[in-house]
From TrEMBL:
Xref: InterPro entries: Beta-lactam-related, Beta-lactam/transpept-like, Diverse_Enzym_Activities
SUPFAM superfamilies per the UniProt record, alphabetical: beta-lactamase/transpeptidase-like
Protein's recorded name: Beta-lactamase-related domain-containing protein
Gene3D superfamilies membership: DD-peptidase/beta-lactamase superfamily
Organism the protein comes from: Hyaloscypha bicolor E
A Pfam family it matches: Beta-lactamase
Entry superkingdom: Eukaryota
């Protein structure tokens, strides 16, 4: 789970995206929301939050409160996707190969190879 504290969000955003925000509000508006809820954050290399917007509800229940800075979401298998992207970027940079044993990088002994680990089966 990931959350952004109110203290890390600048009072005056440096980026204005009114057309995007209008579409987002429309897509998350009850009762016919196309998207349950969205939190969008843009952070620069120094860690400064340049833009932060949230829209929608915290759950499918009609009485659900709107998304706020402390909302938490279940990401399910999204971690696999993020890990795959990171691993493929390392392969692209020549820092990792598909056929090395995973145990070279993990503390737990394993005979798996990265090629097998990067195949999504669930």
């Amino acid at each position: 789970m990931y959350s952004i504290s109110k203290s890390s969000i600048q009072a005056e955003p440096k980026i204005t995206m009114k057309p995007f925000e209008s579409k987002l509000a429309e897509a998350t508006a009850p009762p016919n929301a196309q998207i349950l809820g969205v939190i969008t954050t843009v952070v620069n290399a120094k860690g400064t939050v340049l833009y932060h917007q949230r829209s929608g509800s915290q759950s499918l229940f009609p009485s659900s409160p709107p998304i706020d800075a402390n909302s938490a979401f279940f990401l399910g298998s999204a971690g696999k996707f993020i890990t795959h992207i990171a691993a493929l970027q390392l392969v692209e940079r020549g820092l990792l190969t598909f056929d090395e044993p995973v145990s070279k990088y993990l503390f737990e002994p394993s005979r798996h190879r990265k090629r097998k680990s990067l195949s999504v089966t669930s």
